What we know:
Radius of gyration: 18 Å
Distance between the termini: 7 Å
Order of helices and strands: EEHEHEEHEEEEHHHEHHEE
Oligomer: single chain
Largest sheet: 6 strands, mixed
Strand content: 15-25%
Bound molecules: zinc ion
Helix content: 25-40%
Amino acid sequence: MKVSQLPLPRLEARQLGPLHILTDDALARTSGVRVAFTGRAGGVSEAPYAGLNLATHVGDDPAAVMRNRALLLEELGVPGLPLIVPNQVHGDELVCVPRADAATLADVREKAARGADGLVVTTSGVAALLCFADCVPVVIASPTGAFAVVHAGWRGVAASIAPKAVRALAARESGAEGPFGTPEEAAAAYNVYLGPHIHVECFETGEDVRVLFAEKMGEECAPDARHVSLARALAVDLVRAGADAARIADAGVCTACCPDEFYSYRAEGGMCGRHGALAFFAGAIKQVRS
Length: 290
Ligand SMILES: [Zn+2]
């Protein structure tokens, strides 16, 4: 049996009960990986976190956050699915989730609590959730059902955390154990989704960040003295890691321009909730060589 090729990535807006998400149904049908980029609509948090705030570290009522997380899983049809939510620190640390038994999840949660900005998941039975307000949510999905969810602000982009996740996933899925012959073959087969984030026009930075981006990712990622494009830099760097440019999809929404629909750290003066990038796999991971 071969691993079937994924359809090209395409994010579509969906109403899930009271919630609004962006997802790719064709990906879910083909690979079993469900991706959901959430918005503010439908949650129980109150101002200034109003809506579906999924983060506990921002000052919101923890009971409201737990209800919001539970509501999201219920609406996605997986109530009670164990969640891993790392303590995000704008670094490049990834935590791997190889199994979903209680001991492994306890170990994973401990590592994720120490600080991590990405989860690489090669099992069913668990969902990965990372939280955002302007930074770029990145989900990488394999035809096998494995996936990674990454938090990429400018520090994470500059530290190449998304390419690091592609390489980590590709290494696990190739060679003697994996379904792909080589890591390159694996990386080229992945779909990459960039969720709602602050766009270049709204993302003003200092000269040091501009210079860093221009040097590392090319001048086209830093169009003028005060702005950098996180999405462009991610795309450049992901392709360097072997991703197929045709398999990188961008939600095309600027969080700072749409503070009614999404949380925006910049547009809301730093006091706000967090929307999420959630992914899980429903099925049996394919371990058969292609
Ligand atoms: Zn904007």
